[in-house]
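Quick start: read one record
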Amino acid sequence: MAGRLFYLLPLVLITLYLPASSLAQSVTASFQTNPVDEDRTTILICNVNNLGTNNVVIDRTIYSRTEQLVSGTQILPSVDDNFFLSINDNADGSKTYFMTIRGVYHITDPGTYTCRIESTGGAVITSQSAILSINYNPISSDPRCSIADSNTDLTRLPGDEVVLACTSEIGYPPVDIKWSYSGCNKDRYVPAPTVTSFGFYNSELKIALSDQDNGGMFTCTLSRPDGSYSKGCSVGPFVVLGGEVCNMESTAMTAPSPTDVGKVTTDGMESNAMTAPSLSPTDGIMATEGNDSWTHVANKLLCICCVFCYVLCFML
């Protein structure tokens, strides 16, 4: 019996040794600053215990694409030059890998970063991951407003339904998006828009125009609750034929004819719109080029009469 136990003892020791050796090797991963503002710097910190003759590998996964960044003590040559690696040998025998990421960009850098210990044969012994998030606002050209109909004209009839669109990057954390109305239609109700997002906002607003919407504008605004960001774009002013255009001070004038068409620029977008006529300062009658033409003819006739009188007097 004692002889059998003697032969089993090495197997027991091996069984106890292997799990203990495996648990002794560990790695942790974290970011010094996370989330980090765009264009700033952050550091991935990997603490490795009992590395021995094994290898440390760091990679990242962005949009389901995995890229290896570090192998052993070197950053791979294919990696961008905004990555920098330093390694610290700690007093307790562990190692700390500091991978600095400079000038982070919200398209190329957010994702899952993994530190792992691999055997010399490439087998993964243990690993841990950290997810990097980047704070950013939508690009400077956002939001972008448009009429999402086949008819993009701002001149409409009462009862026409118009679909307005507002597109933008979402940002991180996601910005708030909303529509608003400015004009003299006090009964104008702005319904909740349809918003879809796959990395971008696409907000659609359906409006049935009335004659009270003549001169009205619809604005899409992106903002953050803390007030650190606010930006918008507008569609309008709409010209509803047969309606009245108010000057926002309850003073109305007749809508211009459909022939007075020009361009109105609103927050970076150009839209076809009717140009409001100018009014005479004395009696409110629309000034026209015809009035200016008659005045010019009268002045010419007066000059001819003066020259004729002068010649007549000289001859006498």
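Residues 289-315 form the longest helix (27 residues).
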